[in-house]
Amino acid sequence: MKIAISAQNGSMDAQADPRFGRAKCFIVIDTETGGFSSHDNAMNLNAAQGAGIQAAKNVADLGVRAVVTGNVGPKAHATLSAAGIEIYTGASGTVRDALEAFRAGKLARAEKANVDGHWM
Known about the structure:
The chain is α/β, with parallel strands linked by helices. The protein contains four helices and six strands. The chain has helices at residues 42-45, 51-61, 74-82, 95-103; strands spanning 2-7, 25-30, 36-40, 66-68, 86-89, 108-109. Helix 2 packs parallel to helix 3 (74-82). The N and C termini lie far apart (30 Å).
């Protein structure tokens, strides 16, 4: 399964970004092979609005089945959910830490947004 983790740079040792829509990048990990790739999200960092929607569309286009992040707003949550992507919040530490927490079932599945829109 492919998952996307919001990150502050393109490394597995990067800090997980607490934001989804305005994360600096996403690390996409194949949980079966351990392979990963980094995908820049710079176009959404300073967007006046719609960052969560656009980031969600971009992540969906990468073929992920789950997103791991610190927080997710209402528009991003709706877009990810409509694409059939599971959302897990509460990620912290490095991307590796967030991946391990996901694998261990320690992250909460977000049934709704856990922050308001435009959360910075």
